[in-house]
Amino acid sequence: MLAQGMITVKEAVAKAIEFAQGMLGVPVSEVLLEEVELGKDGPNDVWLITLSAPGRAGIAVLRRDYKKFIVRGDTGEVVSMKIRELASA
User: Fold this and answer.
1) Which DSSP state fits 28?
2) What angle do CA 46, 48, 54 make, to 5 degrees?
3) Pairing state of beta strands 64-72 and 32-41?
4) Separation CA 8–CA 75 (nearest Å)
5) Thinking of the domain 9-83, which architecture would CATH place it in?
6) Residue 89: pLDDT over 60
7) Residues 6+ apart with CB under 8 A from 86
8) What pLDDT shows up at residue 49?
9) Can you give the pTM of this predicted structure?
10) Pick from 85, 73, 79: which is nearest to 34 by CA?
């Protein structure tokens, strides 16, 4: 259950996408939502949002780059963007 005054997950995802567009120049049509998680950053409730976008193509290999965003639940402010490393198969 969401804390009172907390933004919705839909709003948090929109904030993360908006941030990605502004900082990375990624067209919204190329962004995919990969993961969403409710968490804590110190005393603050936050949304942990993982987005992916096309990465640089290797030799005949298409790949995606993954970024993890921390969005404050009370204000909707994106406070962190990190490279999201995938676990090895």
Assistant:
1) G
2) 150
3) unpaired
4) 11
5) Roll (3.10)
6) no
7) 66
8) 97
9) 0.82
10) 85
* Dist. CA 11–CA 43, nearest whole Å: 21
How many residues comprise the chain?
89
Residue carrying structure tokens 């909707």: 76
The residue whose two tokens read 């997950």 is 9
Q: Which range has the worst mean pLDDT, 2-11, 51-60, 63-72?
A: 51-60
Task: Give buried/exposed letters for 8-39 (b at 16+ CB in 10 A, else e).
Answer: ebeebbbbbbebbeeeeebeeeebeeeebeee
CA separation for the pair 19, 9 (Å, rounded): 15
Residue pair 51/31 in contact by the 8 Å Cβ criterion: yes
Distance in angstroms (rounded) separating the CA atoms of residues 78 and 61: 31
Domain boundaries, the chain: 9-83
